[in-house]
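Hey L., structure's done. Input below.
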Amino acid sequence: MLLLESLYDGPEPATEKLELDFGYRTKSRLRARLKTGEEVGLFLERGTVLRGGQKLRAKDGRIVEVVSAPEDLLEARCDGAFALARAAYHLGNRHVAVQIGDGWLRIQADHVLEHMLVGLGAEVRAVSAPFEPETGAYAHGHQHPGDGSGARIHMMSA
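Output:
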């Protein structure tokens, strides 16, 4: 099994790809497979959140690129900036991980949050896309995925 124990930000190009959805990119200990099928063990500093395009250095020196896998999301669009900001506020008030785009918000699929967004006047549609939510106001955060309400980002003080 190939061991991945550190982030890599150097100029060397990746020779391997590791595709993971957001829930798995929030785990610091993980067993997975490269796109080639080779098994890998991920052992990173706790609290690390991997982003699409980041690189990892394998124990054998290979460079592995993290690829954000498409997943089931909800995309909310609103009539005007005020309505979009209001929707974002209500999602943030629930500590929901939100990806912000030009005129839209994306969250992991959740029927309760979908109902809330529609109630706020948003047009909501299901999409399949990589999920890259905002990390929040602080650099070091961690996730509590799998609690039934979508990924949540809580900031920890050092």
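The first strand starts at residue 2 and ends at 8. The two ends are 33 Å apart (CA to CA).

-- N.
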